[in-house]
Every structure is written in structure tokens, then in C-alpha cells.
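Example record

One chain of 151 residues, shown exactly as stored in the release files.
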Amino acid sequence: MSSCSESPERKTVEIKLDSLVYDDNGNLYTGIMKGDVQGKYIEYEVINGRKHGSFKLYYQNGNPEIEGYMRDNINDSLWKYYYPDGTLELQGYFVNDSTDGEWLWYYPSGKIRETSVYKRGVRHGKLIMYDEDGKIISESLYDKGIEIKIN
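Predicted C-alpha cells for this chain:
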């Protein structure tokens, strides 16, 4: 992977097993990483060797696949996932690298397919599934990842 800066010069960086990013002199890297990974384009910010700031992954067609924010190498804040045509497929929050709060899944038409609530990475609260017309097709309640039967 190579980084791009304001100048046209490209520098080689290395990501070691400690998940930190180093420049070609062995120093912790600060800047914007851009490159190709498995046929997709990736771009993210690095501060003192750690992913910190915006994170973006693009499909081969140039449309966004994933957009989010990282803090000290962990997922944090709002993350969005897209269908290959660029329409929103899923969005929700990470807190300290765990899903937390309400997550929404969408049909390719843009209508809501599912809503679910998570707490520290575990489904906790209501899960509601909708058909394409917006009608509820099922509801479930979860407590710490376990479905609770509703009579």
C-alpha cells in the first residue's frame, strides 16, 4: 500500500503485526493512506501510526462500499454500508469497536428492511422487520442477545 501526500512523491509504508503503520524510515506514519486492496480502493487517515479519522472503502465501480470513522485503530461513531449501486444498505453506530444503539437495514429501494438495537455488540431490544411496503412482518425482543418470547 502506498500513501499520497500533497506532493506527487509516493512513499512506501508498512503495517506490522502490531497494527501500526510505519513509513519507509521505520517511523510511525501520519497522513492519509490510499491504495488498492483486493481489487477495491481504500482510503483512511492515520495519526502516529494508528487509524484515526475517516475510513472509506470503494467498490471497483467507484461507488462507496463502507464509510466510517476510526479512533485509535478501532471502529467508532456512525458507519454506513452501501449496495454496489451506491444506495445505502445498512447504517449504525460503533462504540469502542462494538455495535451499539440502533442499526438500520434498507432494501435497495431505500425503504427500511429491518431495525435492531445493540448494546456493547449484542442485540438488546427490539428487532423489527418490514416488507417493501413498510408493513411490519415480524417483531422480536432481545435481552443481552437472547430472544425473549412474547405472548
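Notes: The first strand starts at residue 2 and ends at 4.
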